[in-house]
Automatic annotation (TrEMBL):
Presence of the UniProt keyword Oxidoreductase in the record: yes
Sequence segments annotated as region (Disordered): 61-101, 294-329
PROSITE patterns: TAT
The name this protein goes by in its record: Protocatechuate 3,4-dioxygenase beta subunit
Family matches, as PANTHER family: INTRADIOL RING-CLEAVAGE DIOXYGENASES DOMAIN-CONTAINING PROTEIN-RELATED, PTHR34315
Matching CDD domains: intradiol_dioxygenase_like
Organism in which the protein naturally occurs: Corynebacterium vitaeruminis DSM 20294
Oxidoreductase as UniProt keyword: yes
Top-rank taxon: Bacteria
UniProt cross-references to Pfam families, sorted A to Z: Dioxygenase_C
GO MF: ferric iron binding; oxidoreductase activity, acting on single donors with incorporation of molecular oxygen, incorporation of two atoms of oxygen
């Protein structure tokens, strides 16, 4: 069988492997290459689905225009940079053990399965729309940025880390922002485990060339699940234990959100029966160094238990080898 050495004019990093197994950087470059061609034909990003082939050969990455794009007067608005937060001990970006960002297929919109399309997880449907704003460029949309999102399941488990799911990659994925600075993910509302307010993690990289190196992200932060959404969702099947865990923490006592969370609460539409949409602005100043904020809430630095591990970490969650005890993040 003859093996290709190039694809669409680009040399293959792994000429002995199939096109869909060339890795994240190749997938993202393919998206951008096709986007440029379509732009040249006058086809807007909001009217098409831009796709990269996942491991199962299906269209796995797309963008959406359903989130509100920055208004014409966005450059005149005064933005405060989104607060930086810890990535926590379960990022899956190579900074603490496993690295999903090197895997082909991670560029996808639907996070509810493993990157090969298997192992679908259940939960109340959630569409997450993130509007990236480049503060250093007159508050214009941050186009072609790579955004990595991850969070726990309805049962509070993290793929790649929790007992029984270390070989799973669900609820993790990357999208590339369109010309309006928008990325959209299809996922589920995360559960609530003891010691933390329910949340979604994300990292932003300005260049697709940097996505495989977690130290090159320009923003690491978290999005808080609004209380009314969490209260309604946790009364549904599949979120066992989340209602009781939620009663033990508030946004003000949470060890991450306790020092302020106004920027990290999304605008919500939808319902528990039809699914929710979270929309959030993410202003980023690439000229400033990130300062990770840690509040003194329960189980956090300065809070009860100091930096120790609170009881009831995400279900079946072991600490990665060699990692000192720390609060859940």
């Amino acid at each position: 069988m003859t093996r290709l050495t190039s694809f669409e004019g680009r040399p293959l990093a792994r000429p002995n492997d199939d096109i869909e197994d060339q890795g994240l950087a190749f997938d993202v470059a393919t998206i951008l290459s096709r986007r440029r061609v379509l732009a040249g034909l006058g086809i807007g990003a909001g009217s098409i689905a831009l796709a990269a082939c996942g491991a199962n050969g299906s269209s796995s990455a797309s963008t959406s225009s359903s989130a509100a794009a920055p208004s014409a007067s966005a450059s005149e608005k005064s933005y405060t940079e989104m607060v930086s937060e810890t990535a926590g001990p379960y990022p899956g970006d190579g900074s603490n053990g496993p690295d999903v960002l090197e895997e082909s297929g991670i560029v996808r919109q639907d996070l509810t399965t493993n990157i090969d399309g298997s192992g679908k997880v259940d939960g109340v449907p959630l569409t997450l729309e993130m509007n990236l704003i480049d503060m250093t460029n007159g508050n214009k949309p941050m186009a072609n940025a790579a955004v990595y999102v991850w969070h726990c399941s309805a049962q509070g488990k993290y793929s790649m880390y929790s007992d029984g799911v270390t070989d799973q990659t669900w609820l993790r994925g990357v999208q590339v922002s369109d010309s309006d600075g928008l990325v959209t993910f299809k996922t589920i509302v995360p559960g609530c485990y003891t010691g933390r307010w329910p949340h979604i993690h994300f990292e932003v990289f300005t260049s697709v060339d940097d996505i495989s190196d977690s130290t090159k992200n320009v923003l690491t932060s978290q999005i808080a699940v609004p209380e009314d959404v969490a209260t309604a969702v946790y009364q549904t099947a599949g979120y066992d234990g989340s209602t009781d865990n939620l009663k033990q923490v508030t946004l003000d006592t949470d060890n991450v959100f306790g020092d302020g969370y106004d920027q990290q609460i999304p605008t919500v539409t939808g319902s528990v029966t039809g699914g929710y949409t979270f929309a959030i602005d993410v202003p980023i100043d690439t000229t400033t160094a990130q300062q990770v904020s840690m509040a003194g809430g329960a189980g956090g630095p300065g809070g009860p238990g100091g930096a120790g591990m609170p009881d009831g970490m995400p279900s079946g969650m072991p600490m990665p080898s060699g990692t000192p005890p720390q609060p859940p993040q």
